[in-house]
Design goal:
binds zinc ion, 287 residues, 2-enoyl-CoA Hydratase, Chain A, domain 1, 2 domains
Amino acid sequence: MAFLNFQLKPKNELEAGGRGAAPVHRDESEPEQTCPNCHKSIPVSRLWANQNVCPCGHHFRINARQRIGMITDRNSFREMDADLQSDDPLNFAGYQAKLETARLSSNEPEAVVCGTAEIRGQKCCLFVMEAAFMMGSMGTVVGEKITRLFEYALEHRMSVVGFTVSGGARMQEGLLSLMQMAKVSGAVKRHSDGGLFYLTVLTDPTTGGVTASFAMEGDIIIAEPGATVGFAGARVIEQTTRKSLPRGFQKAEFLLEHGFVDAIVARKAQADTIAGLLRIHNREVSA
Ligand SMILES: [Zn+2]
């Protein structure tokens, strides 16, 4: 009988209806995604209904427009500088083709989307980086768009909320991309000197020059669960220092423990948390 019981057991928790959720009626034609954390296959529609978070808590990557749709009030987002596109200032071999591929695969002209929006009724300036565009790498246009957003926010006395995801500076633009770190940081400083609020949300992965500049310059820094956040890659650090790194190194939870981020906020709670923080600061500005 033990053998029979074993056969009748559902293959995984999701087949049994998941953790307290409604039973899943499987449609054989429906695509599924395998979770890298719990290794279970989840119907894509179910992931969508749960903001692309697995029942085990793993946060799948989402694109910039999906995130804007999830976080902002309906029809409140007004995009800015949507027509700015990268050029090839150094005539770097293969860059034009890479840009074209990135535009087609991400359906975005660049690796960041900027604009104004309302989150639970709280007005703010918002930038959301796009992983599907050359892994959110920071070139001149990314730097320029974010700088302009901060300048607009300063002029209109608005808070800035930024979602970061990036592989770092865009090597095809060499020094021009590296100088964006200083340029954006200058704009962040002027915004801060104006007594205005800047909140960053670090999502997986936030690395390189973006971490070394505006991602970590928020007045409050929150991170998504499990997000990798760091400057150099763990393997490079290990090879350079010849020391093995602690478990969970460069994960959001490790950073929280060591005081680099203020809180880890699950995707589902982000709009409420961000709106709560904006409410405090927006009230101060208007007072
Ligand atoms: Zn999972």
